[in-house]
Amino acid sequence: MDTSTFSFTALYTGETWVANGLSMPELRTPAGDLMYKLAAPAEWAGKAIFGTNLRHMLVARHALIDRLLASLIQEMPGLQILEIACGLSARGCRFTRQYPDLRYVEADLPAMAALKVQALARVPGLSSRHAVVPIDILAADGPNAIASVLANAFDAERPIAVVTEGLMNYFTLDTATDVWCRLANALRRFPAAAYLTETYPRPKTRLLRAAAMAGAAGLRLISRSDAGIHFRTADEGADHLQRCGFDVAEVAWPPDDRTIAVLTGRVAR
Question: Under a CB-based contact definition with an 8 Å cutoff, are residues 160 and 81 in contact?
Fold first, then answer.
């Protein structure tokens, strides 16, 4: 699988967040802006035909993860956050401004992490507790492996939350399962830990199922990945996280969207 092409979708997603007030102009890219404009007719058609579209899903997903992370910060004093596949998300900037004592580390493939560092250099008033590091979640060991990043970038005596947004469905279920098992094991070195990721339940109507299959096929072609839908229901996804080593897993939904859910898996030392 060629992960170097993931930045293509990251640029579009980043522009969607900027256009919908979830990001800032400093994180806008010319390529993302062009893709956003070119996709406008298709997004309009999707909304008209299916009642939803990719942009709506991206915004609903991002806002829901924001809300869940804010709840975890209140629930777990001293929480640290690792956002994997951060792309051009502004969440690290927004959260460190809202919570000045928060340790927030963004991580992505080396090339994307370097692009993020360049973009953040344009943002005024960055927190000293906000950092960007390279990561390779498919690596079982080495300096960029999940366990290494968690060990080197965080305090093992404080709770932690890990986010993967817009990432895991690029992989086959077998590959994702391997990542989740390694992550659950690595998180047990912390006194308490939570992991947030989204899942896409199989649409109930034939038309939406066909659209979802076509969208996954297009994403596989664009990203040269194994993108697809892992679970028929969100509860299946939660059960699977528990089989991967998480003690419990919960399901949350956006208030006006049932095409996407966010799973929260928890482990404790």
Answer: yes
